[in-house]
Amino acid sequence: MNDSQPSRKVGFVSLGCPKALVDSERILTQLKLDGYEISPNYDNADVVVVNTCGFIDSAKQESMDAIEEAMQENGKVIVTGCMGKGSDAEAIKAANPDVLSISGPADYEQVLNAVHQYIPPTRIEGKSPDEHDPYIDLVPAQGIKLTPEHYAYLKISEGCNHRCTFCIIPAMRGDLVSRPIGDVILEAGTLVASGVRELLVISQDTSAYGVDVKYKLEFVDNEPRETRMLDLCKALGEMGVWVRLHYVYPYPHVDKVIPLMAEGKILPYLDIPFQHASPKILKLMKRPGNQEKVLERIKAWREICPELVIRSTFVVGFPGETEEDFQILLDWLEEAQLDRVGCFKYSPVDGATANDLPDHVPEDIQQDRWERFMETQQRISARRLQNRIGQQLEVLIDTVDGDGAIGRCYADAPEIDGKVYLDGFTDTYAGDALLVTITGADEYDLWAEPVYEDDDLESAQESH
Ligand code: SF4
Predict the structure, then answer these.
(1) What is the pLDDT of residues 219-234, one digit of tens each?
(2) Contact 52, 63 (CB under 8 A)
(3) Residue 340 β-bridge partners
(4) Is the shortest distance between the CB of 170 and ligand 1 below 6 Å?
(5) Are 391 and 375 within 8 A, CB to CB?
(6) CB 191 within 8 A of CB 214
């Protein structure tokens, strides 16, 4: 950096889901390109950006607290993200009248304009591309990432065309807008070239990718690729890294990606937020996907790809849920035998249409159902993980310390699923891929011992 330039530091607070994290990464990358330093704390920063989350009330409160703290510690605050629209934006303004700017999710331009307005950028416009630019040269090709070096989120679209009654994401992020498939493949290639070994495909509805652009055909590296999930999976499956699909709905066309999983092109892992199993509750929720045939579909998928792992989330105590509806859900869980499951008690979100539904379920009944749900699923999950003992699996190492290494196998997405513990094994690094033998399990995690060195993996996999 040129010593004569005054410092231009932007503090950054990133809250919320992986989709918001990707927004933060894009804003940070552009800030770096514009010559700003990113500050890890408020005191040193010339301005602070808070990327908020407005998904549920507790997330909103966390965002409000973060804005308030930034206002107290620094005083020059730019707010963006899911709370930057509608009544949430008004609430932020009312509580913090001196915030410099408020913008909605993925509104990168307004955030950057606001930063430019309060601290002008240092990058010299009109420079020849051959000239050394100290700012651009400091930014890696893959941009600024907030995840560890060995995995990255790949956001393929914005917004959502559904209108689930408990959700305000379409109001915050708008209707589905798919990214061009060429851009997504290019970004994935850059990430892989930078050392990323696992790509996590995210969106609000991955299976709807391309619907908005009528599955537009593009030529990417001379290959014809339609803007649709199957073509994207095929392209990503050629990159030689783990590819994990999140937020998929069980539409019939999802059947077509299962053979890619069976062939080892992409991970045999599907994150499908089922949310409930009672047809009545699903209708009240206005959930997408033909739910009636879901169990048959899961069975057919497992026949094609027996290793398939399914993760899901559910809501109990939704307005109108009777004991009978809940029992349908428990029976469905027993039948579906899902591998990874999260469960939430329904709570109203400001602006969601479900708030107006009759027959809200009292808190004590919600709690009772949540406990019964968790007991059922823990039993299923523990049994499925027990079956893994003795298996050999590839593990991607996330952390290593004096006590050993912690990694994940194909069944575990970062942050939300279980872990594989290699107690006492320290001869490895984050990002290494190891073949391990599973030696123990509880209801969430696995324990393992390494059986091959990194170099041996390929030959081991071939015989697997
Ligand atoms: S599918 Fe439903 S829950 Fe998911 S983002 Fe769209 S409206 Fe919200």
Answers:
(1) 998 889 999 999 999 9
(2) yes
(3) 311
(4) yes
(5) no
(6) no
